[in-house]
Amino acid sequence: MRTRSSGKHRPGPGQAEGGDGEVSSRTRILDAAEALFAERGYEATSTARIARRAKVPKGLVFHYFPQKMDVLVALIDERTFVEELDASGGGMDDAVPGDPAGTLSRLARRLPLRASPAMRRILFREADTHTSVRERLGRLNGEVFLRARHALELALPGARGDQARLEVAAATFTAVLIYQENLASVTGQHLDPDAVAELIARALGT
């Protein structure tokens, strides 16, 4: 499975996509929607409330997003984006041979969901009722898994023959990164990805 490729810059929360006021307004709308969808849920958040939170006219929301669903789709598409590994499997400049824990930790810091608990909450809250969100969650899981497995292969070149163990390790780390909000709601404890990276490294015998 290949991750998606895109030539567009994908801004994060609070980042403008360009230098003019209109583009900055779009970013404020998405920031407001992200916060509100995480707090209240999609169904309980009106377009008018998004506009008030973003401090823009309601008509400007419809200018960028003709339907409220378009706001949700833009959020999950742009703010859970994971860059594609290149054809050679590159794009992992922070992988260090002999340091799987550090390699996984650095990978986690580069992924958008590590910095956005709100987007994790939105993904899980809306996946049950919105097909586009559920499909994106599935793709995201696959994308992160591929990068985690490749990172471990680079960090542990001698272990490439033991693909089963590497895949279990990559799947475990992916689950912690993507599902940590869901796990915390069940257990009441937040898992630290850096600590999990250390445990994985020890389990792999490093």
Extract low-pLDDT stretches.
1-20
User: Could you give the count of β-strands?
Assistant: 0
User: What do the pLDDT scores average to?
Assistant: 82
- What percent of the residues sit in helical stretches (DSSP H or I)? 55-70%
Q: Over the alpha carbons, how many angstroms does the gyration radius reach?
A: 19 Å
Silhouette? elongated
Query: What distance lies between the first and last C-alpha atoms, to the nearest angstrom?
Result: 29 Å
Count every helix, treating DSSP H or I runs of 4 or more residues as helices: 9
Structural class designation: mainly alpha
Residues in β-strands, percent? under 5%
Describe the structure.
This protein is mostly helical and 206 residues long. The two termini are 29 Å apart. The chain has nine helices and no strands. Residues 23-83 form the HTH tetR-type domain. Residues 1-25 are annotated as: Disordered.
Write the layout of secondary structure elements.
Layout: H1 21-40, H2 47-54, H3 58-64, H4 68-79, H5 100-110, H6 117-127, H7 131-155, H8 163-187, H9 193-203
Helix pairs in contact: 1-2, 1-4, 1-6, 2-3, 5-7, 5-9, 6-7, 6-8, 7-8, 8-9
DNA-binding region: 46-65
Domain HTH tetR-type: 23-83
Biased composition (Basic residues): 1-11
